[in-house]
């Protein structure tokens, strides 16, 4: 099993941007020392509640801080961005990290982002599939003639290409059944967000594998996964911590337009049940047991850990990271 650190946003514009940069540097430096393999950075635009720096330049800088770690976009909003631009950005990132880039991509869900890019939400699936097909062709080294509904390229043989042997792996994100099938058909892996319940996650994983099998594709690839983890003396204390941190972040996602069959339920009477259905809580031994079960039952190959939460001081997040790295990872490795 490999371990990743999620470089997420917990601040808005009222906090000096250099604080966020320094804290993320702290996270990746410490993660590398603890033996983590990967850093992951997502993408949003025009966020006011949470400040997302753009992932390719951000990861390029952070890779200099922790030069042994792989770097993954988790995720690029491929239905909105220009595929020629992102193909060359990702290839550049791969070169600058000596072939350690991973391309995580998804549809996006926020209305204000679609509006800003002039994209009709109803076209997002078609745009995504067309763009991903073009990105792969632009990385291939062959001459590209591509006539799409949204983008066309003729007689191109780009010299900006990845150096990673076998090309840049593609992780397709999403939580709905259609996204999982798309990941199976078009990606090298399904990158699961933390929103599905434990039961839903198992069903979606089966759907991914069944779809791969139906298309004659390998079933032995990566399965990168996010679950929310809170370390505490026991599960009761972990639940108390989760209640403090859960609502603020997910209310922001829902305000931005996150919805679907696996959207968290946030009504008061269901909140505790919601957390238990989606989080791994408790002592280092209990968390290690939960992650080991995911690896054994579902074939998880990468676990992406998020220590930062809105309102949680950075020093407390670093304590969680240190405990996760020294106790949970050590237990799983052993």
UniProtKB/TrEMBL annotation:
Pfam families for this protein: Bac_luciferase (PF00296)
InterPro entries: Luciferase-like_dom, Luciferase-like_sf, SsuD_RutA_monooxygenase
Keywords attached to this entry: Flavoprotein, FMN, Monooxygenase, Oxidoreductase
Domain Luciferase-like: start-end pairs: 1-302
Oxidoreductase is among the record's keywords: yes
Keyword Glycosyltransferase annotated: no
Protein name, entry field: Luciferase-like domain-containing protein
Organism expressing this protein natively: Plantactinospora mayteni
